[in-house]
């Protein structure tokens, strides 16, 4: 408990820095939102009116003071491009991205970890080469290319997958908003049709993300396993006559897990923000595309909210990983 | 073994989930589909109210379909069989009667007109709405000004069902300006209850709720995802639309929109790129409709305030150097009306947009450059990255051709959000730009793009008193109906614009729409958005 509290304290300066930096960055970027929002037939006068309405004519320290005050009250400001509060936007879009990313990551783990273990155990064999090929192909193909290719094959040509039209088909009913995860919400309310519909919409984009994130996970698993399999205690375990499965899973893998978990954490946070392209291809209302659109529209508040949210999530993720470390490897628990 | 079984079963479940639901899940579903329209576009609205701050063009579509105006336009059939609005014929929408006086126009409202919440539409609602349009500032107020609708005092309630609009001055554009999207009629009683001191016009409420009397009302809006409309069954503005429900989905990927259309999973794909249009036309699986965008053109614009383009010989040299046909083919795949290669720069009729007399003539261009005495020009050509798929090929061809007459250009790609501010600065020496005016009259185009008020759209910063005299002369002649004087002035200002050439017209682009074969009733409107009210799904 104390360790967690100590870790949280070190997090505070990071957050303060993030708040200041994001605020300054978005003000320094080119693009005058007042001109954009004054519209097609703007006169300098109407632009000035808009600038005043949006509060962009006050000096920077003033704007910053207002911003910090708002943050303290949970007010992330309003998105000019969608017209809703940023907090509402983020709370509706984050579950969409998280659901997709988690499913994609789950698929990736289910394929990549066993592949990595096999490749390490049977080093130099066909499986090892397959692992190498899968890793290289997955990471070298751009993620939007993989997405479009999957859509072309499985939707356009074969018709197996439903239309890449977003989280849910236009004619299906949205489940009530309990967690924001359609899969969970529809199961909890017993709506199996919606569950099936949202799962079918999820498969292709999750597969796209999985293909992309296979590479680091499988390579890290393989490398880590190789290092562990060469160590003394594994030799001892084998010499003691334990069967192969016990040696590999219970002893070797458990020790090799640490770097894999770190990689998973990094991949997850990377995917969450950077899967903008997948969101664009599959019309997914996620947080990445929201932030990019806001940036292009010189809409400050969502960009700041997004960076802050991502920073906080990354910090929480790191904390979770540190705790997991402690659970997996008691030696690390004592150090902290 | 166990793991493999588990994996197999998971794959099985996943494969099972992938099989899409059969089209007829139940008979109720089948009926719902035949009365629902699914429209897909690249972007969606950021505000459902055109009066809102910074409403984007998709937002105009929501306003158009959910709010009525006093009058609208009739529909006409074009030579190729497609439908378009008729610029010259008005029809009553919310008003049942329009009588034009000398300095005013009086409207009698339809007695059965009801707002979406069931309350009747009265003259007070009309006055409140028109007051709103001239008071909110920004684009809507500027648009009202274009038709000389400026003061609240111009809008007078005569009685519960009658409204009179007094003219500030005689202006031919006043009546057409009442049929554009901006002067929609809002439910003033409802909005007054939602207003506050900081927000007297309830702009916050109308951003995400429709409070009109139009044929459709928005029942659900998820920004960035979809807008769902349902039909207002008490609509009196025209013939009751066939479609009970319209779902407008945002699908950012162009390829996926095309895939959806070709597989029959969407009904209409609006605003197709020229490349998709030309390919889909050849394939013939869908109905593709293209209309030239009225009062609109892509042009190369030259800043005439500072060297080198303040020299008219240099400008004319550029006009002769451009490879017009190549530009049209590269940018529009031939789907545009050429605005070059006409008989002469001096036009003899008032058709607009008009062709210039310029053609691609390198020899002439080089001779003009030599005559001008200017050499060694090093400049930049800028364009709006938001219109990149059209502007980028044009910029490259411009760069290549100008290089041959001694003008070196670097290409400057301006992100969409910054394009307006760059235009406002008026410092770009050379640009590729697009302008189109809602009111399809040449004097309207010239008022915004060539007149001495030096508005944001006068990107060349062209200020010339002779030009102003011609523009004002045309507007004054139109106001009193003097056809002869009008023609003289219009031909005068077009010819002068093409001779002085601060702006080199390239082509008039097309607006392209793709629909399934069972969809009919698409009408081209000046605002270049989709009108759901006339669409019929067989």
Care to describe what's here?
The complex is a heterodimer of chains A (336) and B (538). Chain A has helices at 2-28, 33-38, 44-53, 60-72, 86-121, 126-140, 143-157, 182-188, 192-229, 232-239, 244-274, 276-281, 287-296, 300-328, 330-335. Chain A has 336 residues and is mainly alpha-helical. In chain A, helix 9 crosses helix 11 (244-274). Chain A is globular and about 85 Å long. The model of chain A has no long low-confidence stretch (mean pLDDT 83). Chain B has 538 residues and is of the alpha+beta class. Helices cover 36% and strands 23% of the residues of chain B. Chain B has 18 helices and 21 strands. Chain B has helices at residues 2-18, 27-34, 57-66, 123-135, 138-146, 174-177, 188-194, 203-208, 254-262, 274-283, 312-321, 324-332, 362-372, 388-404, 416-425, 442-449, 465-480, 483-500; strands spanning 36-41, 71-77, 83-92, 95-100, 104-109, 155-159, 162-166, 216-222, 226-231, 245-250, 268-270, 287-292, 296-302, 336-338, 377-384, 407-414, 430-436, 503-515, 519-520, 523-524, 536-537. In chain B, the strands form 4 sheets. In chain B, strands 1, 8, 9, 10, 11, 12, 13, 14, 15, 16, 17 and 18 form a 12-stranded mixed β-sheet that branches. Chain B has a 4-stranded antiparallel β-sheet with strand order 4-5-7-6, with helices on one face. The model of chain B is unreliable at 19-29 (pLDDT under 50). Classes of the chains: A mainly alpha (336), B alpha+beta (538). At the A-B interface, helix 2, helix 3, helix 5, helix 7 and helix 9 of A face helix 1, helix 2, strand 1, helix 5 and strand 10 of B.
């Amino acid at each position: 408990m104390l360790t967690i509290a100590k870790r949280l304290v070190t997090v505070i300066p990071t957050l303060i820095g993030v708040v200041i930096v994001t605020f300054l960055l978005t003000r320094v970027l080119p693009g005058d939102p007042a001109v954009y929002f004054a519209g097609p037939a703007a006169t300098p006068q109407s632009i000035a009116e808009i600038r005043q309405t949006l509060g962009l004519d006050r000096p920077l320290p003033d704007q910053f003071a207002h911003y910090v005050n708002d943050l303290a009250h949970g007010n992330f400001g309003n998105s000019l491009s969608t017209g809703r509060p940023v907090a509402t936007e983020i709370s509706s879009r984050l579950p969409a991205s998280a659901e997709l990313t988690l499913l994609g990551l789950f698929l990736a783990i289910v394929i990549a970890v066993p592949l990595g273990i096999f490749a390490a155990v049977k080093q130099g064999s066909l499986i090892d080469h397959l692992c190498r090929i899968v890793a290289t192909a997955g990471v070298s193909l751009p993620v939007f290319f993989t997405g479009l290719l999957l859509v072309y094959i499985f939707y356009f040509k074969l018709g197996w997958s439903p239309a890449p039209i977003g989280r849910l088909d236009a004619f299906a009913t949205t489940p009530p908003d309990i967690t924001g995860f359609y899969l969970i919400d529809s199961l909890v309310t017993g709506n199996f049709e919606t569950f099936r519909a949202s799962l079918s919409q999820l498969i292709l984009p999750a597969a796209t993300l999985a293909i992309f994130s296979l590479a680091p996970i499988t390579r890290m698993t393989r490398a880590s396993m190789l290092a562990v399999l060469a160590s003394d205690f594994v030799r001892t375990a084998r010499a003691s006559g334990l069967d192969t499965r016990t040696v590999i899973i219970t002893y070797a893998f458990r020790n090799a897990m640490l770097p894999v978990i770190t990689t998973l954490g990094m991949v997850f946070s990377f995917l969450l923000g950077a899967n903008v392209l997948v969101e664009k291809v599959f019309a997914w209302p996620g947080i990445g595309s929201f932030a990019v659109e806001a940036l292009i529209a010189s809409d400050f508040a969502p960009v700041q909210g997004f960076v802050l949210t991502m920073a906080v999530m990354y910090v929480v993720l790191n904390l979770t990983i540190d705790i997991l470390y402690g659970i997996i490897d008691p030696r690390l628990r004592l150090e902290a | 073994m166990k793991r493999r079984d588990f994996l197999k079963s998971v794959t099985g479940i996943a494969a099972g989930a992938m099989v899409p639901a059969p089209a007829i899940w139940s008979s109720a579903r089948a009926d719902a589909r035949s009365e629902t329209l699914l429209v897909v576009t690249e972007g969606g609205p950021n505000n459902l109210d055109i009066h809102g701050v910074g409403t984007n063009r998709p937002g105009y579509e929501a306003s158009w379909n959910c709010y009525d105006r006093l009058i609208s336009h009739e529909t006409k059939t074009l030579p190729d069989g497609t439908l378009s609005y008729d610029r010259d014929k008005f029809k009553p929408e919310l008003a049942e009667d329009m009588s034009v006086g000398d300095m005013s126009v009086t409207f009698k409202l339809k007695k059965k007109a009801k707002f979406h919440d069931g309350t009747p539409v009265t003259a007070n609602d009309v006055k409140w709405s028109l007051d709103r349009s001239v008071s909110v500032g920004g684009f809507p107020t500027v648009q009202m000004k274009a038709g000389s609708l400026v003061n609240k005092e111009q809008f007078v309630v005569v009685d519960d069902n009658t409204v009179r609009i007094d003219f500030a001055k005689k202006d031919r554009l006043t009546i057409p300006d009442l049929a554009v999207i901006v002067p929609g009629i809002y439910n003033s009683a409802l909005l007054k209850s939602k207003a506050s001191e900081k927000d007297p016009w309830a702009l916050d409420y109308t951003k995400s709720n429709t409070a009109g009397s139009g044929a459709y009302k928005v029942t659900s809006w998820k920004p960035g995802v979809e807008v769902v409309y349902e039909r207002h069954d008490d609509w009196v503005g025209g013939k009751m639309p066939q479609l009970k429900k319209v779902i407008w989905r945002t699908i950012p990927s162009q390829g996926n929109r095309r895939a959806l259309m070709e597989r029959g999973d969407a009904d209409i794909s609006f605003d197709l790129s020229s490349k998709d249009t030309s390919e889909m036309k050849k394939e013939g699986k869908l109905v593709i409709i293209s209309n030239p965008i009225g009062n609109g053109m892509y042009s190369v614009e030259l800043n005439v305030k500072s060297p080198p383009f303040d020299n008219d010989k240099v400008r004319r040299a550029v006009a002769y150097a451009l490879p017009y046909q190549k530009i049209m083919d590269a940018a529009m795949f031939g789907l545009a009306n050429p605005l070059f290669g006409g008989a002469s720069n001096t036009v003899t009729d008032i058709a607009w947009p008009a062709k210039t007399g310029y053609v691609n003539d390198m020899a002439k261009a080089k001779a003009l450059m030599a005559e001008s005495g200017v050499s060694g020009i090093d400049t930049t050509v800028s364009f709006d990255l938001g219109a990149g798929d059209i502007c980028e090929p044009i910029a490259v061809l411009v760069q290549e051709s100008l290089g041959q007459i001694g003008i070196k250009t670097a290409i400057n790609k301006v992100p969409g959000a910054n394009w307006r501010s760059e235009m406002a600065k008026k410092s770009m020496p050379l640009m590729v730009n697009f302008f189109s005016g809602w009111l399809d009259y040449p004097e309207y185009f010239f008022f915004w793009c060539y007149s001495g008020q030096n508005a944001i759209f006068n990107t060349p910063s062209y200020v010339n008193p002779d030009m102003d005299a011609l523009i004002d002369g045309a507007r004054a002649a139109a106001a009193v109906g003097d056809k002869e004087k009008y023609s003289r002035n219009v031909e005068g200002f077009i010819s002068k614009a093409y001779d002085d050439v601060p702006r080199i017209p390239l082509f008039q682009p097309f607006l392209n729409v793709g629909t399934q074969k069972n969809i009919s009733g698409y009408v081209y409107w000046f605002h270049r958005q989709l009108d759901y009210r006339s669409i019929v799904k067989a």
